[in-house]
Amino acid sequence: MTNITAMLTALGDPMRQSILDRLSHGPMPVGQLADALPISRPAVSQHLRVLKDVGLVLDRQEGTRRLYQADPEGLALLRAHLDGVWVRALQAFGDRLAIEEEEEH
Amino acid sequence: MTNITAMLTALGDPMRQSILDRLSHGPMPVGQLADALPISRPAVSQHLRVLKDVGLVLDRQEGTRRLYQADPEGLALLRAHLDGVWVRALQAFGDRLAIEEEEEH
DNA sequence: CGACTTGGTAAGTGGTAGCTTACCGTTCGC
DNA sequence: GCGAACGGTAAGCTACCACTTACCAAGTCG
Hints:
The structure is a homodimer of 105-residue chains. Chain A has 105 residues and is an alpha+beta fold.
């Protein structure tokens, strides 16, 4: 299981998508996330754990609070992978069009 | 539920990730996918249905077979979204570094 | 020290996602 | 037309995942 697979699997949950999206705007403590979401604080903690384990989120202690934020490095990896898939799909798509073109004559 | 959310949720399953990855290399019939994967053909059909519903996969009838392939357009949407998240995270990350720099003096 | 804030962990539960087998529809070649 | 190849759908089962409540640990401030 590569990192990318784990990342995509982690992002399979809409709540985690929402959390990562919010954290991409800047650091946020757990409580504040829980206030903005329709789930309990422990649930948010569990989601953050998952996101952290796969490298999509960073955290640091700040007094009694713990600030989480999106990890640009992890996102870069995911982005690069998806880019590869997209490029290949585009290539395959273009190839097919070329073949059809060929067949018309 | 936007398309992007649905796409990410669909990609939450490793088997679907594998399927989309294979389809990015070119069109493939259902049976061939099932042969290459450790699940039954109906299971593959169900996954393809999900991927198609969210716009990540295209299909066309070809005689008795049905060819599936990755949809470059859908992938482009997903790519663009992830790009946005990444850019924001990078921005937020840079901002924080700048503040720390400031505080040192 | 002692109260309060903040958050991670444990245990338990309900819902659902993914799988299988069985069945049926469609297309092609003889 | 008939049989074979190919694939979608139905029904049912199991396992896991997201959630909740309850509890505990750590830091802060009076």
